[in-house]
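Same chain as my last thread, 189 residues:
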Amino acid sequence: MVVHADCFLRPVNQLGLFSKKVRCGILSGRNKYPVTQGIRFLRAAKVPFTEFLYEYEERGGTAVCARELEIDEHAAIKTLIMEDENKAPLIVLMHGDLEVSTKELARLIGVKTIKPCEPAVASKHSGYLVGGTSPFGVRRKMPVYMEETILNLPKAYINGGKRGFVVALDPQDLRKLLDPVLVKVGIRV
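reply #2:
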């Protein structure tokens, strides 16, 4: 097994050829990973993280990320931009294999309703394209709500600010950096 500083490559045959599913700078012909606002935020905070690139698929979500990185979808964290009935935006961090109970979240935070923002509105608030939304370095300061069981993961894989680009970090660092309100609103669908 060959180990690169930023990712792990797994041989796929006896000749030592490697899977191109997870593209590192070496395999993709790039010398660097994208430098997004999220990456600038993480570097400024001096938080250790590992970067991964994968082939983005429209509407593929965390299932594609998990498949391409060969991780459990539960560890792939979605960054959702939502809004209350007054159009006040908020960020929800949720396991990839769960959905947000918007009724329960609204009840917990004391508002009438919560719903996902339209893609254009979400991009306006976050500064990122939907599918590449990171909770780090967002354009507008928003309250962050995080499913409490994310803290139980050994590593959280979360978008780095570009489609097909995720970072892996200690979930405790999410807590330190984002100061989220911990909630229990994840449901299986």
